Amino acid sequence: IYGEKVMRKWEGYQKGVNFGGWLSQFGTYSEEHFASFIEEKDFRTVKEMGFDHVRIPVDYVVLESADETAARNPLGYEYLHRSVSYCRKYGLKMLLDLHEVYGYSFDPLKDLDREHFFYDKALQARYRRLWCTIAEEFAKDTDVVAFELLNEVVLSDVYEAWNQVARETVRAIRRISPDAWIVIGGVRYNHVNAVKLLGAPEDDQIVYNFHCYEPLIFTHQGAYWVKGMDAGFRMHYPDTLDHYRTESAAFSKDMMGGIFDEGLPEPGPDFFKAIFKPAVEAAERFDVPLYCGEYGVIDLADEKDTLNWLKDIHEAFEAYGIGRAVWNYREKDFGIMDPRLDPVREELIRWF
Questions:
Q1: What residues act catalytically?
Q2: Bond prior to 215 in cis (omega within 30° of 0)
Q3: Which of 62, 214, 257, 291 has the smallest set of CB atoms within 10 Å of its CB?
Q4: How far is Cα 164 from Cα 323, in angstroms, rounded to an integer?
Q5: pTM higher than 0.90, yes or no?
């Protein structure tokens, strides 16, 4: 049967959770926030919940100064080294995700040119230098730590330029860390349909990455950062494919993702299997593991609808052997540990 775990699995990174909002996308840059938002007890909790890894998004300003000097920030590296020690203590793996870099951000609330970075050699050189510094810092920890080059590339048209940037960055990292796992995602906010546009892997320690919030009209209902979204808009899951498409038509097709793909079945496990299939085919073609670095449902959705969605996407992940990390551990509008999910937490844990 096609897709029944014939793809390489990324062992140790099959069931994870994001620590978003800690060293990235934080409200205020402060030592108080960094010291308290995620602590050792959270790593222990993650292990007790049955997760095997944490994905830690990190903004460049935590690791270096935001000015042209790019001066090293020892405190940022200290938090990451502590994370490595906690992962070792509790038997977890760790994915270090460079979430935002100097000259580029995916964040729709930030006003900047999202194309410029991919054609600016100076910005790319600074980006590679940061990755070389990271690789040197964790050269002895690659049994526990993997590297994710960049969180989300927004624009579709830069995919060839991004492939070139990624190739050059992988080669730079390899001169320092020849055996680290390196995770690479595609364009359109790391959409699953963009996996097939990724370049051929440089070596056998590369992982293809995507994010999945399909149907986005459900998972992002009422989201303040989605342009044109009414704060009071609500949807249920499951619902009909036609209804999701009708409601999604008012938004950008790039934003709404794969809901308009041809030949999709009605929402359910087969819906996700169909959406994942082109990415699985690309991963199988290059013998590369496939990983979903983010998936989840906004905290405005009904709790039972959230469970239904997680159950269905979980079945598709398991059918293909796709590793994943749910967004998000705490807060950031998707927190799985937030009090609203307390009544369904026991069942919730089954579907990660």
A1: 152, 294
A2: yes
A3: 62
A4: 25
A5: yes
